[in-house]
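Hypothesis: this fold can be encoded by more than one sequence.
Test: take the structure tokens below, design a sequence, compare later.
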């Protein structure tokens, strides 16, 4: 398995976190549900520091190299400021009774 982390600083970009949240809700989540080989993807943001990113867990390096249905680079107007990949040595999965949320714009679980 392969882990990928990408992060943009939006301070000098063509978009805002709010616009990216709309894109996430209206397009990206549904599109990524159809991507073969992606085991997990989480979109992340920090309004205070104007950062947006994603973390991925891929079944293989080959799966991670496929063309993705993402317009994030286009909307932001540049490549990620950080883009790192790592081999995954081991994982665990916590089990819960509720399904994970698909909706963007849910309140942050982090206290302010």
């Amino acid at each position: 398995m392969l882990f990928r982390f990408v992060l943009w600083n939006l301070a000098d970009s063509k978009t805002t976190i709010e616009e990216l949240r709309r894109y996430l809700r209206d397009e990206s989540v549904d599109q990524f549900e159809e991507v073969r080989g992606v085991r997990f993807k989480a979109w992340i943001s920090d309004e205070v520091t104007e950062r947006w990113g994603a973390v991925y867990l891929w079944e293989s390096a080959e799966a991670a190299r496929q063309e993705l249905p993402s317009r994030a680079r286009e909307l932001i107007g540049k490549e990620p400021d950080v883009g790192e990949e790592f081999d995954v040595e081991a994982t665990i999965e916590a089990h819960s009774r509720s399904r994970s949320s698909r909706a963007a714009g849910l309140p942050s679980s982090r206290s302010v």
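The chain has a mean pLDDT of 86. The two ends are 34 Å apart (CA to CA).
Hypothesis status: open.
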